Amino acid sequence: MQKDKPFSQACENNKAPILEKLTALFKQPGTILEIGTGTGQHAVHFASHLPHLVWQPTDHPQNAQLSLAWIDDSDLANIRPPIALDVLKGDWSGLPAIEGAFSANTAHIMAWEEVQAMFRGVAASLPRDAIFCLYGPFRYSGRHTSESNERFDLSLRTQAPHMGIRDMEDLKALGEETGLALEEDFEMPANNRLLVWRRIQ
Known about the structure:
This protein is of the alpha/beta class. The protein has a single domain, classed as Rossmann fold (3-Layer(aba) Sandwich), CATH 3.40.50. The chain has six helices and nine strands, in the order H-E-H-E-H-E-E-H-E-E-H-E-H-E-E. The strands form two sheets. The chain has a seven-stranded mixed beta sheet, with helices on both faces. Strands 6-7 form a two-stranded parallel sheet. Helix 1 packs parallel to helix 2. The chain is globular and about 45 Å long. The mean pLDDT is 96.
C-alpha cells in the first residue's frame, strides 16, 4: 500500500452512508460519472462495493491526477483512469457514455457559473430517466439547516467570494432549466443531503 496517498477525513466519514444510498439508486449495470473525484477515496470505496458499475472519475485539470494513488493501489478493474474535466470550459462530448452521475462536496466549492455548467453537462450526458446524485450541504429558502453549516458557509465566502453553500430554490430552478427534476432529498449525517435528480427531457 502506498503511504503517500492523499487523504480526506470527510470522505472517510461519509463514504458508508453515501454508499448505502447509491446501492439502492444505482442498481443496474452501467458507467457512473463522478465529478470532482478529489483524492479518489469515494471512487475506490464505491467501486469495490458496487462491482456491477464502472466508475469514471473526473476532476478539474489541476486536480485530475490526485486520485491516481488510491485508484492504482486499489487494483480494481471497474475504475477507469481519471479524466481531466473543467466543467465550465471542458468538452463533455469527449466523455464515455454513462448511465448515471455522482458528485460530492463540489457545489459549494465551485463558482455558481460552474454549478450551472455542471448541471448542463450532466443533463446533456445522461440518457433519459437516468439520475444524478449530488451530495453536500444546502440551504432552504435562504436558511441554513444548522449553525455549523452557517459557520462553514461564512468560512467559505471568506476564503473566496465565489464559494458558498447553494440554495435549493436556485438549484431547483437550474434543474428545471436543464431538464433535471429533483426526485429525492435524503437527509444525511453531519447536516448534509443527498439530492437525486432525474433527467426528464
